[in-house]
Design a protein that fits this description.
- The structure is a single chain.
- Helix 1 packs across helix 2.
- By secondary structure, the chain is an alpha+beta fold.
- It has a domain of 128 residues: Aminopeptidase (3-Layer(aba) Sandwich).
- 28% of the residues lie in helices and 35% in strands.
- The chain has an 8-stranded mixed β-sheet with strand order 1-2-3-4-5-6-8-7, sandwiched between helices.
- The longest helix has 15 residues.
- It holds the Pfam family Acetyltransf_1.
- This is GNAT family acetyltransferase.
- InterPro entries: Acyl_CoA_acyltransferase, GNAT_dom.
- It comes from Cytobacillus oceanisediminis.
Amino acid sequence: MIIKSKEHIVNNLNYIIRSAVEEDAKELSKVRVQIDGETENMDREAGEAFIDETGFKELINKDSMSSRNIFLVAEVNGKIAGFSRCEGSELKRSGHKVEFGVCVLKEFWGFAIGKNLLAQSIQWADSNHIKKITLNVLETNEKAIKLYEQNGFEIEGILKMDKQLSDGNYYSTIAMGRINDNTLR
């Protein structure tokens, strides 16, 4: 689905959150690899599960046409600083929910880009009668967990020893969900 662009100014940084377009695909491929290498909060290491320009074009087109998906980018001075995606299911039993994921380049941490991508996604979900948003977050990412809780997400489960990080230790993944009470029947 396509949304209307929204401008933000945080700590003197101007950026726009908008729907991804095909022309973003090449840059998204590079940005995703860079982000994966900047933090261990992601599921992947840099270069793993690589999505090339064609793959991103396919995702963008699929998401633009689907009422159950949304692909957002945060743009700073014409460059992508981060992105988020909500993906719904075509299965009837799971059609009421979407899964949220977000990533932001490290140089743009502290400008509420992730927070605003989340807020825009929640607004989209609520206005499109999506009953539940789910996400997974690494237990060490306390800042993200706090942000999600502040936005109505609750811990629904813990996947123990789910990820092995560069220090050789195993860490748990926190499964979280946000239910939109206004859409319940």
